TrEMBL record:
Keywords: Signal
Pro residues biased stretches: 364-398, 416-438, 450-518
Protein name per UniProt: PQQ-dependent sugar dehydrogenase
Pfam families recorded: GSDH (PF07995)
Record InterPro entries: 6-blade_b-propeller_TolB-like (IPR011042), CBM2/CBM3_carb-bd_dom_sf (IPR008965), CBM2_carb-bd_dom_sf (IPR012291), Glc/Sorbosone_DH (IPR012938), Quinoprot_gluc/sorb_DH_b-prop (IPR011041)
Segments forming domain Glucose/Sorbosone dehydrogenase: 50-340
Stretch forming the signal peptide: 1-20
Biased composition, class Gly residues, residue ranges: 401-414
Organism: Microbispora hainanensis
SUPFAM superfamilies linked: Carbohydrate-binding domain (SSF49384), Soluble quinoprotein glucose dehydrogenase (SSF50952)
Low complexity: compositionally biased ranges: 439-449
Top-level lineage group: Bacteria
Region (Disordered): 339-524
Length: 619
């Protein structure tokens, strides 16, 4: 091909790619219309070129942070602009359905600028937090969540009570869901610093509800009621209303159990029509993103019950849907997951789709960029980012209660406002209860048969794909105008009662939960240190702390003498030479038997390194 023709074609292709960055897709058939205050006939492809996006959280300047499961990257995105790389989270292990999953912002983000993420390591799932300006300095908030090839959960969101809620899966071992001895198959509730709220349903435990197979969506309505989406095995997926201390049945039963000792689901679906992940609430409607079902479910709710027939939107339009969240612009944001196993990606995948609220003018009054300028993540990268291109005067739906739906939110809208109470819930459709919507009160349970369905997960292992959009430097500039530091907010009291349920049914041989131990326990830990000398890369050390007691610990101090063979150890108390005491102080919930590993810098030139004696003391 002649060089001039080749250059001309390249220019045309570049122009076409740029124009595709912000487009309105084909209209839906006439009559497929408006659901929950959103016009699904006018979806907009706002962001393209992502790889397996998972979590979504909104910054005060109305841009969003997006996690990529398989690449461990966090991107800052805005409709019509090129994504900007914020950071790459280290030590992420993306096997199976694990990897970098949920993301949430501190409720006091305007003041403390703290970001939370949930991810899989080679040994566990965990939650860490970091300051917006220094994402490499991470603090473990919660560690020791069992991981597996399937059932890793991963959604995190701050509730209306200011507490951090964490959804976990059963890690492929169904009995974990009914066991009080670990964190798998649960919804957990902790303070922002990882400590346990005193009003949790089970004294001294982060467990808020149990008997879950794999929860990946969390949302609250305007009354503070909590909902969750859950993957079943091979029979039924579920949408549940979550109550403190509730037992949701897995693996004793799946779907509607007919057993008063467990909570019944509000809605059940076959996995082929759902496999639900993200969840958001707006205008009396719960929106559930379906992976295998390649659709968005809209479920009308009021007072914790179903009040109408679930509606299907976007079926087959964009492929597998992972996350849904109500944006600060009033639009509904939906992410695709077509690069994960089971998906069929197109050239623009993975994408973020925006659904406009009813009455929002289109096209916008000011032209939207076809492929706007890249978001500048550097502190000196120019003026603040402008809001998304939807008109500021357009009416917006009532926001999701709590954490901005299940999108990992907790972010605020507008120019760094403080979080404010949600408006009154919009009217819902007239009641026509779903056949499966008859929640049963949780009651005392005796032993019961435990048929355990086969564990054939909906999400399948997927290989790590090729890199996402071209990275740009990090860290990102602050999205808030001149914030002033302040301490994390005091925890608010839980809006729900805190029952202490009796033991609930569990499959043999798994023990039934007995989460309130009557006997006092012990608090102890042990630590090991390993040094990895290397010529190919800077040498490093690994510190592993294990809880050897019978009670959870939330902070600990490790000390050892820097051995000969090293030139220094970079510890919490500074750059320590050989013979000096290296001190490491850490915080974060560590359950009995669980372990957490962190890395640190060392100096080494050559020769052998002696193994130090290490002490670990809970504080």
């Amino acid at each position: 091909m002649p060089k001039r023709l080749s250059a001309a074609l390249a220019a045309v292709l570049c122009a076409m790619t740029a124009a595709a960055a912000l487009v309105v897709t084909r209209p839906a058939p006439a009559g497929a219309a408006v659901t929950g205050g959103f016009d699904f006939t006018r979806p907009q492809v706002a962001v393209t070129g992502l790889r397996s996006p998972w979590g979504l959280a909104f910054l005060p300047d109305r841009t969003a942070l997006v996690t990529e499961r398989t690449t461990a990257r966090i991107w800052r995105v805005s409709p019509g602009s090129t994504p900007a790389l914020v950071t790459i989270i280290p030590n992420v292990y993306p096997a199976g359905d694990g990897g970098l999953l949920g993301i949430a912002l501190s409720p006091a983000f305007v003041q403390d600028q703290t970001v939370y993420v949930y991810f899989s390591t080679s040994s566990d799932n965990r939650v860490v937090r970091f300051h917006w300006s220094n994402p490499s300095a991470q603090q473990v908030v919660l560690a020791g969540i069992p991981r597996g090839l399937t059932g890793n959960g991963g959604r995190i969101a701050f509730g209306p009570d200011g507490m951090l809620y964490v959804s976990t899966g059963d890690a492929g071992i169904p009995g974990y869901a009914q066991s009080s001895g670990n964190l798998a198959g649960k919804i957990l509730r902790i303070r922002p610093d990882g400590s346990i709220p005193p009003d949790n349903p089970f004294s001294g435990s982060p467990v808020y509800s149990y008997g879950h197979r794999n929860v990946q969506g969390l949302a609250w309505d305007t009354g503070g009621r909590m909902y969750a989406t859950e993957f079943g095995a091979d029979a039924w997926d579920e949408l549940n209303a979550i109550v403190p201390g509730g037992n949701y049945g897995w693996p004793v039963c799946e779907g509607v159990c007919g057993d008063p000792r467990v909570r019944e689901p509000l809605v059940t679906w076959h996995p082929a029509e759902a496999s639900p992940s993200g969840l958001a609430y707006a205008n009396g409607m719960l929106f559930a993103a379906a992976l295998r079902g390649t659709r968005l479910w809209a479920v009308p709710v009021a007072g914790g019950s179903i009040v109408g027939t679930p509606v299907v939107e976007l079926q087959g339009w964009f492929g597998r849907l992972r996350t849904v969240a109500l944006g600060p612009d009033g639009w509904l944001w939906v992410t695709t997951s077509n690069y994960d196993s089971g998906g069929t990606p197109v050239s623009s995948d993975d994408r973020i789709i925006r659904i406009p609220p009813v009455g929002d003018a289109w096209p916008p009054s000011s032209p939207s960029p076809s492929a706007g300028p890249p978001l500048s993540p550097s502190p000196s990268g120019g003026p603040p980012l402008s809001p998304s291109p939807s008109p500021s005067g357009a009416p917006s739906p009532s926001p999701s209660g709590g954490a901005g739906g299940g999108g990992g939110g907790g972010g605020a809208g507008g120019p760094c406002p403080s979080p404010a109470p949600s408006p009154v819930e919009s009217p819902s459709p007239s009641p026509t209860p779903s056949p499966s919507a008859s929640p049963s009160p949780s009651a005392s349970a005796s032993s019961s048969p435990s048929p355990s369905p086969s564990d054939s997960p909906s999400p399948s292992p997927s290989p790590s794909p090729s890199p996402s959009p071209t990275p740009t430097p990090s860290p990102s500039a602050s999205p808030c105008p001149s914030p002033t530091p302040s301490p994390s907010p005091s925890p608010s009291p839980s809006p729900s009662p805190s029952p202490s349920p009796s033991p609930s049914p569990s499959p043999s041989p798994s023990p039934s939960p007995s989460p309130s131990p009557s006997a006092p326990g012990t608090r102890s830990c042990e630590a090991t240190v390993r040094f990895i000398p290397s010529w190919a890369r800077p040498p490093w050390g690994e510190l592993t702390v294990r809880n050897t007691g019978t009670l959870p610990i939330s902070s600990w101090i490790v000390t050892f003498t820097v051995p000969n063979g090293l030139t220094y150890v970079l510890a919490a108390n500074g750059r320590i030479p050989p013979g000096g005491p290296a001190i490491f102080a850490s915080t974060g919930l560590l359950m009995p038997g669980a372990a957490v590993t962190t890395t640190f810098a060392i100096g080494w030139t050559n020769g052998n390194v002696e193994a130090p004696e290490v002490t670990c003391t809970p504080t």
